[in-house]
Inverse folding.
């Protein structure tokens, strides 16, 4: 059995930066892809594995090798926020996806902040749709990344 891996690679120096361990690639997909959003100083990147309707995985990766999977936390935070504030969410919660890679024009990375516009919706339907502006704080500490929700706002 072959193990499929993705790597962060510096094409300027022709050198490997790190193996992406915190995201799980899904080989043999006929759609989707990988998108990368870099912080202004090129020290940290948000890597998103995209699927047809929404991301299937996402992680923050530092050039020093520190990594954390952020996909599940973004999903949990969006769903928890709506579960407490939106009765229509509760009616449709089993059919919803949380998409943030199609809104990459609102994706922002600064020194210790990540901002994403997440759209929670029912694929191929107009039954439910809600957009959330989600702000996170992250900190690279050695080979670890701490990642915490700061606030969520409906848009």
């Amino acid at each position: 059995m072959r193990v499929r891996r993705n790597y962060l690679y510096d094409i300027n120096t022709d050198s490997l930066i790190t193996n992406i361990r915190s995201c799980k690639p899904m080989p043999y997909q006929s759609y989707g892809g990988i998108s990368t959003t870099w912080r202004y100083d090129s020290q940290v990147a948000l890597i998103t594995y995209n699927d047809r309707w929404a991301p299937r995985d996402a992680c923050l990766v530092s050039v020093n090798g520190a990594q954390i999977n952020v996909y599940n936390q973004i999903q949990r935070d969006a769903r928890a926020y709506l579960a407490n504030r939106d009765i229509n969410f509760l009616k449709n919660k089993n059919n919803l996806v949380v998409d943030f890679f199609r809104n990459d024009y609102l994706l922002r990375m600064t020194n210790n902040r990540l901002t994403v516009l997440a759209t929670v919706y029912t694929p191929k339907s107009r039954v439910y749709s809600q957009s959330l502006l989600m702000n996170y704080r992250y900190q690279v500490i050695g080979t670890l990344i701490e990642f915490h929700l700061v606030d969520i706002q409906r848009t």
